[in-house]
Specification:
Blueprint lengths: L4 H13 L12 H18 L10 H8 L6 H9 L7 H21 L6 H9 L8 E2 L4 E2 L12 E3 L11 E3 L3 E2 L5 E2 L3 E6 L4 E5 L4 E4 L7 E4 L3 E4 L2 E4 L4 E4 L7 E4 L3 E4 L2 E4 L16 E5 L2 E5 L5 E2 L4 E2 L1 H13 L8
Antiparallel strand pairs: 1-2, 3-4, 5-6, 7-8, 9-10, 11-12, 13-14, 15-16, 17-18, 19-20
Helix pairs in contact: 2-6
Length: 325
């Protein structure tokens, strides 16, 4: 039933307050659906591995009816457990491909033991073998055995999608993920492998694992006697370790006796905390303003308990008298 226009308009503010609907779940690709079906089939193999015909004379049944291990009865039990009744896409795919699965089970599984490879890659042609990509299942960059030199992910790997390019893992770069990013150095490299290891935290670039192997120091560090050392926390730039080697001091610090020292704002002539009765506490590089315990905090003062009670009573006595209607 359609709402009257006035009622519909009245609901508009409520609708605007409702949270946006969650984004619809990304629809699985044909390859993902096929791989999912194969994974469930393989799980069915595991679940039925120790079963038999279930009759009173298993030995006679297996001799007469063939072994349960490769029987149509076992296949039927696996197929019946593949899809939940509510999984429309799984049931649709199973109905369309049941004859293929039956043919593989009864005639082809000895010749093609990898169901995924036979079913998804060679028969339905919706997936590719690992290390290959795209409509024609071409080898990924670096080859299908070790795509991206083992240091990245090949775009479209195992699917009929993607372009085969490499998305390198952290620390690696280059078309084949064999080069090291800044902050990493090459700890092993040969014709087949490239290993990049993180530099010391002091280094932006490096040739080895210590702060003496830096090619360039990180921001906040400086080269001192052949090693990158960290500037003191009170420094803005430095020439060496400690507060005495700061180029400049950070806010809240000032140079005193040749080094950056904390400024005690609470002891300055100009009061840092301006509200009446307020206490000032110095902290490294700053300060805090706090009312004493038991005092009531207002915008411009810390009010003692007795004054706060008196002010409250006074405000109550000034309320207008109640008038009968």
């Amino acid at each position: 039933m359609r709402l009257p226009r006035r009622a519909a308009l009245g609901l508009l503010p409520l609708l605007l307050l409702l949270p946006p609907a969650p984004e619809a779940a990304k629809k699985p690709t044909p390859c993902q659906r096929c791989r999912g079906l194969v994974d469930k089939f393989n799980q069915g193999l595991v679940d039925t591995a120790k079963k038999n015909f279930g009759g009173g004379n298993t030995a006679w049944e297996e001799k007469t009816l063939s072994k349960y291990e490769s029987s149509e009865i076992r296949l039927l039990e696996i197929l019946e457990g593949l899809c939940e009744s509510s999984d429309f896409e799984c049931n649709q795919m199973l109905e369309a491909q049941e004859e293929h699965l039956e043919a593989w089970w009864l005639q082809l599984k000895n010749e093609y033991p990898d169901l995924f490879e036979w079913f998804c890659v060679k028969t339905l042609k919706v997936c590719c073998s690992p290390g290959t990509y795209g409509p024609d299942c071409l080898a990924c960059q670096g080859g299908s055995q070790r795509p991206c030199s083992g240091n990245g992910h090949c775009s479209g790997d195992g699917s009929r999608q993607g372009d085969g390019s490499c998305r390198c893992h952290v620390g690696y770069q280059g078309p084949l993920c064999t080069d090291c990013m800044d902050g990493y150095f090459s700890s092993l490299r040969n014709e087949t492998h490239s290993v990049c290891t993180a530099c010391d935290e002091a280094c932006k670039t490096c040739s080895g694992p210590t702060n003496r192997d830096c090619g360039e120091c990180q921001v906040g560090w400086v080269l001192d006697e052949g090693a990158c050392v960290e500037c003191d926390s009170s420094c803005v730039g430095c020439t060496g370790e400690g507060p005495g080697n700061c180029k400049e001091c950070i806010p809240g610090y000032a140079r005193e006796h040749g080094q950056c020292a904390d400024v005690d704002e609470c002891s300055l002539a100009e009061k840092a905390c301006v509200r009446k009765n307020e206490n000032c506490y110095n902290t490294p590089g700053s300060y805090v303003c706090v009312c004493p315990d038991g005092f009531e905090e207002t915008e411009d003062a810390c009010v003692p308990p007795a004054e706060a009670e008196a002010t409250e009573e006074e405000s109550l006595t000034q309320l207008p008298a109640h008038e009968d209607l």
